[in-house]
Amino acid sequence: MVCSSWSPFSVQNNLTVIVENLFAAKSSDERKFWGFILFTQVVQTSSNKHTLETVFSKNLMKCFINQLTDTDRYLNKAANKALKALVQVAEENPSLVPIFVKQLLTNHGTPSFDNLTKSKTIEKMMSFANEEGLLGLISLFEGIILDPHEKDVKGVEKRRQWAADHLLALIRNNKVIKSKSWIDTLLHLFAFYGHFEHKSKNEILNLTSNSQAMFRTRLLSCLSAILENPELKDYPWSSEVVSFINEKESTPGSEFVVDFGADMLETRNASLKTLKKIQKKVSIFVLPLLRQLTMLEQIE
What we know:
Layout: H1 15-22, H2 29-45, H3 49-54, H4 58-68, H5 76-92, H6 97-105, H7 113-117, H8 121-128, H9 131-146, H10 153-172, H11 180-195, H12 209-227, H13 237-249, H14 262-278, H15 287-294
């Protein structure tokens, strides 16, 4: 049996082999039980990101998810104990949240982890993230947006919406700490993919008009949620989004995808000119809403 003095660092190079063998299809329940103990000890004792990523092996994740999905399964309690330890470590070490979420949702995990396990593990973990962890989560989901690992356009669109909804949930979740750095990053992400072309060598990964419209909708949902938050509403978030879009639009090589009609384009340009003239005279706290009403909502 695994001894209490085990150190993950002593076997780091062979950790994948060890874990895979413990959770091999022909392994006994006893060996798989030892595997869950080993997994828990690695998670609880290691701060090495490579080690933490390595321990989520293919065989482990398959057994882990299978055992969690049914309370009648022999190792369900062992799997649940390991899951609780994982959540506790995430709460105590917020910067590790992106690593755990990535392994549960991608690689050998599954985007349906919470649904299959009938838990709110991902939601809980994401609420624990600190500023570093939140930026890591945004980077994680942006990676999924850029390459959802789906086989057709419809699958890509669906996975991109799934990723966008997880990001929107960060804004709406009152338990998530709010700071300008990650909120700006998130708003800019939605603004960029909603308003500008992004092409890939793989044609299936090109942004469709459906996905771009979805990102614009998520952007407006974020801004609406911010305006309803007493701690956030007095900062000019909408104003900064408009400035970001204008700056990107004037950048060489950027292809703005929203097709304004002649009348709407004239209204938009006139609104922007007027706002530039009165910007110094208008309260900074009124301007964001004005800009949102005159520009962002017109492009939907």
